Amino acid sequence: MLCTPMPQDEPHNAKTMNAAPPRILGLNPWIHDFAAYDVWARPLGLYYLLAILRKAGFSVSYYDCLGRPDTSHLKKNRYGAGPYLKQALPAPKILGDVKRRFSRYGLEPERVRKDLSGAEKPDLILVTSLMAYWYPGVFETIALAKEIWPDVPLVLGGTYPTLWPDHARNFSGADEVFTGLADERIVDLANRHTGWSADNPVKSGALDDFPYPALDLEGAPVFAPVLTSRGCPFRCHYCASGFLNPEFLRRDPDAVFDEMLYWRERYGLRDYVFYDDAMLVQPEKYFLPLMDKILSRGLNCRFHTPNAVHIRNLTPRTAKTMFQAGFQTIRLGLETAVFSKRNGMDAKITRQEFLDGARNMKEAGFDASVVGAYLLIGLPNQDYEAVKESISIVKEAGIRPVLTHYTPIPHTALWEEAKASSRYNLEADPLYTNRAVFPCQKAPFSWKLLSELKNLCAG
Predict the structure, then answer these.
(1) CA distance 312 to 280
(2) Of 135, 129, 173, 130, which is closest to residue 152 (Cα–Cα)?
(3) Could you list the residue range(s) of the whole structural domain that residue 435 is in?
(4) Which residues form the Radical SAM core domain (predicted)?
(5) Distance (Å, rounded) from C-alpha 280 to C-alpha 259?
(6) Model pLDDT for residues 204-250, shown as the tens digit of each residue
(7) Is there a domain that residue 210 lies in?
(8) Is the peptide bond preceding residue 29 cis, with omega within 30 degrees of 0?
């Protein structure tokens, strides 16, 4: 259902208060894919934009086609992650060589249609997006919204149009496609489409001045996504973080602590999920002061890092602090443990740094049920014997290997090599970049290799 709680912040623009504020609806679209699982995924960027608009005086609401937290009847883990509802769909014709089940993940279309049709008509619709190859779900969401409200302007933003702007403009059906960061431009966009004249209450890059993300629009959140930084100082060849967030920005640890305390006091939350790409960079200045405040207050929190942390900074003190603070799900950004075959992918870590970090985590009290190391599979021209060796090295270090599929992404250093190694024309359609189908190999997708690697991880 649509949620429109009372504002948390006083409207920034008092001069517009005599008129009824325009209504802005944020939509989180369906996912169409061969596989999808809710690993604490929330559209945090959209939450921030709705919070900024609300502070500027607009009336905001939100609808999640993925259906959370209404899917309580599904089996969830005790920290809030779990499966989505899903309905079978025909696979896209251009991926007809892939013998895998394809699905829509989220609420049934009839439910979404009923909910939106019964809602108050908005003056502007904002649709977000994440993985570019999920665009069919984005398109279905846009089509349904335009069917219900054909005369309401609809703007598409997020990762997909930022990476593939021409594709989004040509095929999405949105009235406007917005690319790049929106925090300093979102109020102007809303003014332009609604005829209002609100002032923007934030400046781009001043993360501590942003209002808290509009997490309250979920109704009853079960965890809080937390951002202590934006961007990343590294430029790994497979990652688009530097393109999507050109500047690496940090928040003051006191400001992060105050936000976490706010969510705890308002909703009684214990679980906090860090969305950072580089949370442990300069830990003495940022991460450790934050954890020290949490420990000093005895908050009894649980923390999760699905985006991975940098192993180089897992010193004995950092590892011990993480254990004491209550980290329950830790992912390490390893990519490969065969360091002679990193092929310039990144410069984040050496073999000794990995072994030291693994030892520090074990000595702090963590075991493999909590700590996993991401290993990339599906890279261009990848030596899968090296992947198998990496799995063995990680397990011997007392860490759980976690396979993560490589996604070829425009504007990354590996893009040209990915195009050359693929059996598809990657530039022709974002669907060809779907990581589930191993797009960067000449041979068609086969379960044999994937099953073998998964069995090695589990054995």
Answers:
(1) 9
(2) 173
(3) 226-458
(4) 218-446
(5) 19
(6) 789 999 999 999 999 889 999 999 999 999 989 999 999 999 999 99
(7) no
(8) no
